[in-house]
Amino acid sequence: MFTALFGSVEQGIIYAIMALGVYLTFRVLDFPDLTVDGSFVTGAATAATMIALGYNPILATLTAIVAGFIAGCMTGLLHTKGKINPLLSGILMMIALYSINLRIMGLSAENAIVKPNIPLMSADTLFSQFQGFWSNLGIDDALENFIKNTLGSQTAPSTWGTILIVLIITLIIKFIADWFLKTEVGLAIRATGDNKRMIRSFSANTDGLIVLGLGLSNALVAFSGALIAQYSKFADANMGIGMIVIGLASVIIGEAIFGTKTIFRTTIAVVAGAIIYRIIYAVALRIEWLDTSDMKLITAIIVILALVIPQWVEKRREKRRKEKRRLDRLDGQTQLMQGGNHLA
Amino acid sequence: MLKLEGINKIFNEGTPDEKIALDNINLHLAPGDFVTVIGSNGAGKSTMMNMISGALTPDFGAVTIDGKEVTKLPEYKRSKFIGRVFQDPMAGTAPSMTIEENLAIAYSRNAKRGLRIGVSRGRRDFFKASLEKLGLGLENRFNAKVGLLSGGERQALSLLMATFTKPSILLLDEHTAALDPSRAELITRLTKQLVEEGNLTTLMVTHNMQQAIDLGNRLIMMDKGQIILSIDDEKKPALTIPDLMSEFEKIRGEKMNSDRALLGS
Questions:
Q1: I want to staple A193 with a disulfide (CB 3.0 to 4.6 A). Which of A30, A126, A328, B198 is the partner?
Q2: CB contact at 8 A, B57 and B77
Q3: Torsions phi, psi of A117, nearest 5?
Q4: Rounded Cα gap, residues A87 and A82, in angstroms
Q5: Which of B93, B77, B94 is nearest to B85 (CA)?
Q6: Residue A239 pLDDT greater than 70, yes or no
Q7: Are A189 and A290 in contact (CB under 8 A)?
């Protein structure tokens, strides 16, 4: 159980980068961007193809980020220049990317033009490269001894290197996002999601900002996809299905638990939300009568509840406030009448 | 400073709903002019403002600001030199962002936005000093989200944001109409103060005749898409509401439907 949870946390930290991308469009830009399902795979496919062809994993990952950025910009252009509704722009791009992703993966094979998946079993990835450096430090052995001898636990994670490196990457992304959203361009992007008319009257090109915002968001999503492909040593054309809903679930769970008072806090909430989602996922898989394939239904239900319950709570609160105010008023009136009687 | 030449605009041309919104509008504002615009509903006041701001483009005619022809320039490029305050207090600010962040957005109006931090320490002092001029205590609520402010406070903030980068033209579109009388009074006073301080060339639409008479050095009256009366800075100081009403009757040969205009709103 412990090892399974440990793996979930590792994955959750990687998926958190995707959730930060979803936060950027869904919350900051107020643009429900469905490109994510496609651009996540684009990131994975690009990185996996390049790694399979023998390129350096760092270069492969950077290329994946650029590919995601381009995909996001395309969705933005469909919406702003093509005047297509935001949801439809995302869906069109997502479906187009499905074919493109198969073509990208096809580049890794000599005898086929399309390919539905790429295994990376023996290939050199970011993680295997870091592991080479990490195991020389001997920290894993020390920690294993500590856990087995001092804590008396039977199981210890095989390595702490992976969780450390993904945590560092995700935290760097989080701090860059915090900083970016406070720059002049970042403020303009936030205002675009908040009040388009206002930001246009302050000489900002909302079309350009939407394209840029979608590009950056999908660059993060593709980055996450590239890391997941290297982490699980596998890229697959279908690995992105439902990714937008998982991203939304992470954002919503995180915000509900940790709050949204400042940007700094909200981005922490989103990262934590992604990790919590993975833990819920791992726990749900241990329930006997549930199948792996049920997880999409469960995710949908989590998002639906997270969207609906706050409305109910707010309605009840409002009703109680109204009732209280009415009682206060009635109270005031009786006192007034009593006062009047007294004077008479 | 601002020149409108032969501006025409027809909405829904060729349909039963066809409406001539602007009919050959010519208007010239010298630097420092403060022109108030009155007229009944549908007279074309807001359409004229939208022509200047670039939210709408004219069918014919030219708009010139500061010697530059801007007729074809998109709204966001034009707003480098135009400050605007809207009627709706919600329209001029970003509600989920803080007061200082809103000010930072306004501050980068006439510069290219880059990767500098929006609210830097040096700017914060300037923002604070600017907010103090409003006298509303907003300088002590720097990190409050603008959505938490009252309508009057938001409109005062919008006014500050529209003026503190010294735009070539300031457009005020019934910016006190949605406020209660005491708040409207406050915003009117602040308008006067900020326009005078910056010596801003200003065009203000209002439904309130008294406000149109009290503020500014010139006044124009619009009706059915035309400017039917123009009072210059020599005659304006002596102007009264009955004067305006009788002028309207003389020109149009009908009584002005003026309940709303008279009582103000």
A1: A30
A2: no
A3: -160, 160
A4: 13
A5: B93
A6: yes
A7: no
- Positive or negative, the Cα torsion across B187, B189, B194, B195? positive
d(CA A66, CA A223): 9
The CB-side HSE value for A333 (13 A sphere, CA atoms) comes to: 6
Distances in Å between the alpha carbon of A338 and those of A73, A146, A329, A334, B14? 70, 76, 14, 6, 69
Scanning A162-181 for CB atoms below 8 A from B yields 179-180
Task: Find the closest chain A residue to B74 by CA distance.
Answer: A205
Interface test mutation site (partner A, options B113, B154, B169, max chain A beta carbons within 10 A) = B113
- Count CB-CB contacts under 10 A for residue A172: 11
Question: Model-level pTM?
Answer: 0.89
Question: What is the total residue count of chain B?
Answer: 265
Q: Which helix (H) or strand (E) holds A64?
A: helix A57-80
Burial A42-58 (b: 16+ CB within 10 A, else e): bbbbbbbbbbbeeeebe
B interface mutation test: which of A80, A190, A203, A212 has the most B CBs within 10 A?
A203
Query: DSSP state, A206?
Result: H
Per-residue pLDDT tens over the stretch A13-36: 999 999 999 999 999 999 999 999
CB B257 within 8 A of CB B223: no
- What count of other Cβ atoms lies within 10 Å of the Cβ of residue A260? 16
- The torsion angles phi and psi of A241, rounded to 5 degrees, stand at -60, 125
A199 interface with B at CB cutoff 8 Å: yes
Nearest CA to A51 among A240, A225, A229, A222?
A229
**B38: three-class secondary structure by DSSP:** strand
Q: Are B204 and B218 in contact (CB under 8 A)?
A: no
* Number of CB atoms found within 10 A of residue B216's CB: 23
Q: What is the pLDDT of residue A22?
A: 97
Please, which residues bridge with residue B227 across strands?
Answer: B222
C-alpha distances (whole Å) from B138 to each of A337, B131, B249 are 41, 6, 46
Taking the CA of residue A174 as centre, how many other CA atoms within 13 Å lie in the half-sphere pointing to its CB?
22
Q: B204-227 pLDDT, tens per residue?
A: 999 888 889 889 999 999 988 999
- A261 and chain B in contact, CB less than 8 A: no
Rounded CA-CA distance B112/B101 in Å is: 17
A chain contacts of residue B53, beta-carbon cutoff 8 Å: 201
Q: Between the CA of residue A290 and those of A161, A247, A250, A283, A298, what are the distances in Å?
A: 32, 22, 21, 10, 10
Q: Which residues contact B86 (CB under 8 A, 6 or more apart)?
A: A197, B92, B158, B173, B175
Exposed e or buried b per residue across A71-109, where buried means at least 16 C-beta atoms within 10 angstroms of its C-beta: bbbbbbbbbbeeebebeebbbbbbebbbebbbebbbbbe
